[in-house]
Design brief:
The chain has one domain (29-142). Helix content is 25%, strand content 18%. It has helices at residues 2-18, 62-67, 112-121, 129-134; strands at residues 48-52, 55-59, 75-78, 85-87, 92-95, 106-109, 125-127. It is globular and about 35 Å long.
Length: 158
Amino acid sequence: MRTESAFVAAILALVLAGCGPTHGPQPIATATPCADCGMLIADLRFACEAERGGRLRVYDSIECLLRAGPPPERAWLADYDTRALHFADSVWVVKADIPSPMGGGYAAFLDPAAAAEIAAARTGRIGRLRDFASGAATRAPAARPDSTAGRDSAANRP
């Protein structure tokens, strides 16, 4: 009887935990419609997610996220290299000659050296998401660490 009670209590705890607020990004699936333009998400290198009005909304590109209004406190951008979502303030955003889904040329990088490399190779600007939202993104790339060996060359990236 004790085992059954413990099992029921554990199941109940899991169910109730699922009813709580969302505390982070949810995985973005391809073919999910963008909350701004409605285009189906095809390239997860550019996908992003934000909490607006208590709901998570997904976007096919950083430009759609920015077009939807000022970036909220809770926004996540996909690292271009790994496609993993990271808190917006922890990644570097590059606006350059990058073929992004909506043509705005935005991509996010967790690695500042990768962001600087792309910005330099593609005549881009680098900053944080809030910098681009406010128009304060710099022309100069962030300081580059010396350890860029083994990375794909920026010239070889799309």
